[in-house]
Amino acid sequence: MDLFEVIPTNLFTILTSKNRSVYADSLLIMRKAFKENVLIDKEVLTNELINELHSNIFDIDVKADEDPNAATSYKDAVSLAKYIIKRLADTGWIDMEYESEDHLVEYVSLPPYSVHFINIIADLTNNEVKEYDSFMYAMYSSLLNADGEYKDYRYTALNSVYEKMLEFEDSLKTLFHNLKRHYTNLVSLKTVNQILSEHFDSYQKDVIMQIYLPLKTKDSITRFKGSIFTILMKWMRDADIIDSMAGQALVQAKYPDVDSAHAGILSKINYIVDKLTDLEELVDLIDKRNTTYVSAATDKMSHLLNNDKSISGKLTKIMAKVATDLQNGYESSLDVTMEVLQLQKQQVLSGESLFTRAQGNFETDDSGPGELTYVDDEVANKLTEAFESETRNRFSHQNVINFMKEQLNDKESVNSNELQLSSIDDMILLMNAFMDAYDDKLFYRMKLEHGQVINNDYQIPNLVFSKRRN
Length: 470
Description:
This protein is mostly helical. It has 4 domains: 3-125, Orthogonal Bundle (Arc Repressor Mutant, subunit A); 135-307, no CATH class; 310-341, no CATH class; 377-467, no CATH class. It is built from 15 helices and 6 strands. The strands form 2 sheets. A 3-stranded antiparallel beta sheet has the order 1-3-2. A 3-stranded antiparallel beta sheet has the order 4-6-5, with helices on one face. Helix 2 packs across helix 3 (77-90) and helix 5 packs antiparallel against helix 6 (154-185). The longest helix is centred in the middle third of the chain and has 50 residues, at 258-307.
């Protein structure tokens, strides 16, 4: 079926017009009214538009819509709100109807396609992180109940698991492509703060906490796959169960005859079994892409920290200016610098403070330049390889493990305030430990609490690392 046999051809014109922002807000207001009422009174909706849009309602340029009635005056909020409703009706977003012939009260109704599109707009504009839908647990629970107490719902359960599997696959593919988007976004980040914000505020919240963490822990495929396979294989091998499910499918008019029902049921069981295996491979690809992103973020942050000299250069210029002013008897620049940078003046007087430095005597040798010490090429190559290896492996997985062992030591747990972060290398090791904590093979685990803490001038999430029990 052609798309525009289902929806009006001018449906999206309001979202491409000059007034698109006001129309988009109006659709969300209408969605709220749809959620709260079975019948939406046109007058009530008019008042809702006036109250919610406030002054934005006066931003509408009626002539920009090329409306036939553009010459009509729309000076007050009521007439503008009614114009919005009329415009939504003309483009097919809403329909107008009367409850009955006896009551001439006009109501607004939403066609099915309009409800779908408005919900999509609401999801795109909602900044809240959507909670993870426990796909594997939901599929297992549905099959378990149908295999036990509710045997008459076996076909319904199978069909529900089939639909859930399709949704689960879409969710994992979306996660896979979302990881690529975050990885690509690293190219445009220019400072360490931007990388930290992207990593902790966006990547962790939108990716790790939303899908990746539940997928690797409480709702993992490995945890429920065996139980799901057991139930489905039991049904497939039992002819009476298949016959019963076929009868249930025929009652629901899902298939034209018994043979088609048998074939459809077996096809769905095979699809679910095969798809779970395929999705395990997709999860492995997600793991690799996640590792690639973390490695790229760490490398770029390390590069910026080692090569960005802008801050040190600015501080050097500030200190030079302060020193020059002090020599000329001006202390105003020092006072401003201390106030802005929150510096404190410290002075120490000791027995070594009052002395005259001795003049050094330098002897010169006119014998010419000295001979360079010969270094064997093989020795030089080994020294170079050792240096490169040490630099490359500074943030290796084993060094991350050693770092966490030093942090926990003889403690059962340690929080962000107790971590020993003495250098930027420790900060980078902490970031790697943060990501590796979701691996249940490690000796430690991590819990992410609310808020941020300051540790040695580093602002980090409120974390609790603890040792796993044997």
